[in-house]
Amino acid sequence: MSTKSFAGLLGLAxxxxxxxxxxxGQGLGNSPYSRLGLGDTPATSGGIRQQSMGGVGxxxxxxxxxxxxxxxxxxxxxxxxxxxxxxxxxxxxxxRLASQKDGSVNLGYISMALPISKRWALSLGLRxxxxxxxxNQLTEAVPGEDELRSIKQYEGKGGLTQxxxxxxxxxxxxxxxxxxxxxxxxxxxxxxxxxxxxxxGGVENATTTVINDHLYYSDFTxxxxxxxxxPLNEKLNLNAGGTYAxxxxxxxxxxxxxxxxxxxxxAIESNAVLSGQKGYATLPATAQFGLSLDxxxxxxxxxxxxxxxxxxxxxxxxxxxxxxxxxxRVASGGEITPDPASVDSYFKRITYRLGVSVEQMPYRPAxxxxxxxxxxxxxxxxxxxxxxxxxxxxxxxxTVGIRGNKDANSELPQGGVIQERYVRAQLGFSxxxxxxxxxxxx
Length: 442
Prior knowledge:
Largest sheet: 14 strands, antiparallel, barrel
Number of strands: 17
Number of helices: 2
Helix content: under 10%
Strand order of the largest sheet: 1-2-3-4-5-6-7-10-11-13-14-15-16-17
C-alpha cells in the first residue's frame, strides 16, 4: 500500500467525517451515568497513542504522532501529520437486580499538526468533549393506590464537540509553552416519560406525559501547557510537563416542551413551557502534571496525574441540579519500538504500548466514591512503503475497564449502584509528510 493510496483513503475518511458531524458527541452505547452533568466527559483528550498507554503523555514528546494532551508538546512535530480515529465499545451494565449489554461505534477524532518554524508548531482538529446516551425504564406501584401502576422512562442523546487550535513554542533550550483554544458547542436532549395505568384498564388505554428538555451550548475554552526536557546522559532524557484548563462558562439556551401522547407515541397535546431561556454551564478547572523518561529513540515510560474541580459545575439554575464532586486521576504507561530501522524483521518496527489508569468518578451515590479502573494496550503498524519524506501507520488501541461498583451500597433503592464493564477498541490512521521542501537543481 503506497502512501499516496493511504492519503486517498484518509481523505475519504475525512470527507465522510465532516459530512456527518453528528457522529461527534454521540455516546458509545447506553451509559446511565451520562444523565448527570454534561454527560460522560473523558479525563484525557489524546489520540490512540496516548489512550493505548493508559491516557498518559503530558510529558511524552513524539515527532510521529500528535499529542494534544499538552499543547506545549505540539512543538515536537517534525513533519506535517494527519490523524483520524474510530472508537467502538461493548459494555455490560448491571446492578444487583438486572443487567444488559450494549455498544456502538463512533468517529473519534480528526487532527492535523504542522511545523511552522524551528521554534513554533501548531495543530488543529475536531474531537468530542462529552457524550450523553442513556435509556432506562422503571415500573412500580403508585404509593397509596393499590391498583395504579406507573411506567417511568428516561432517555438522553447528544453531547458537546470541540473544534480546537493548539500551539507550541520553544522559549528556551528544553522549555516549551503551549496554548489550546477551543470552540465548544453542541446540544443535549433529555426526555422523561410517565405512564399511569391500572391492571384492569391495561396499558393500551393509558396516556403518557412527556417532558422534553433541549439544551444547546457554545463558547470558547482555553488550556495552557508547559514542558521541560533535560538530558540526564547521552542515552536518557527526563521530561516534565503540565497543563491547566481554566474554569469557563458555556452560554446556552433551554427549551422545554410538555406533551401528552397515546401508547403508540402519537402526540395528543403539546405545550411549550420554556422557549430560548438563556443560561450557562460552568466547566471545571482542571490541573494535570506528568513525568516521563525516554532514550530519544525507541522507548518511553510516563506517569501522569490530574485533578478536576467538578464541584464547581453548574447547569442553568433549574435543570440537572444533582451535585458533582471533585475527581482525581492517576495513570502510568509506556511504549517501545524494538528497532525502528530494522530491515530483517517487520515486528521490530512495530510500536508496542501498555498502560493502566485509576480515576475517581464525579458521582457520589449515598456518599460512596466510585472509580473507573482500566488496562490499555495498543500498537502502531508502519506501512511498509514509508520513505524519509513520508510515512504512514495503522494505529490500534484496546481498553478493558470497570466503572462504578454495584455492591458499593446495598441499601440504595432500585438495585443500588450501577456498574459498567466495558471493552473499547480504537482504529486509526496517521500520515506524516514533509512539506515546504525547497527544490534544488542538480
